[in-house]
Amino acid sequence: MPPASKPTPAQQIAELQQQLALADQGAAKLAQRCLALEQQLAALEQHESYDNMTLFRLTLYLDCGLGFSEQDTLPAPVSAYSVNNHSVSAIFELPREVRAIRIDPGELPCYVAGLALSDEKLEPVPNGALALDGGRALFLNFDPQFYVDCPGRLPAGTKLSVTYSYYPLQTGGDDTVFHAMRRGIELCQAQAAAAAAAADAQRALAQDYGEQLAGQERRAAHLEQQLEAAINEKEHFRLSYEAVLSSACWKMTAPIRALFGRSK
Predict the structure, then answer these.
(1) Residue 252: what pLDDT?
(2) H-type helices in 96-165, by residue range?
(3) 185 — phi, psi (to 5°)?
(4) What radius of gyration do the chain's Cα atoms show?
């Protein structure tokens, strides 16, 4: 068998150029694929962050005289909420005169602590929340709200800062722990309400019994007064009778009474 002929330098160069071209094509395709994946990942992260932050977004609803509506709202920037320390801080400038404000800390059930406004005369009141000590509030339902009445109204251009700590309690529909906690709190509330109703019924029963007892005591006192009056009257008649029997007139007329008695 004749020995294989060695490729010429020109053939080797052509083969290397062909392999290099194939490698360049593979590298280009790989780079394009990596770039596409990075773009998809960035878009996915941006989409998820926007959706999540929307659920946690602070929004003010303004009552300018016609009640609260979607047209009169001031949303806080997404950056107002810090995920690391669960703090929310935002400054709003009122575009119109306002007579009441509704503070919506987000859309999810949540725990809110330390809610403070720059105007200390304004007092936020939680709506439909479980009020805890220290001005903290636990919202077990979606769309938590605080209502703020503005005595004398706030003029247009007023700057109002809102700060609080925000802890969302549910980020998904299958949060078993949250639903169990909410069910437990609802049961405790129902038991407390039942105990309060039973206590009210006992107080009402005791009040009725007390009124009946007071009525019986008043009647007994009235009967005692009548009895005492009858005794006094009897004593008066007895004394009058004894006075008649011991009188001189009665003794002097004794023979006449005896004569009439024998004649009868």
Answers:
(1) 79
(2) none
(3) -65, -40
(4) 48
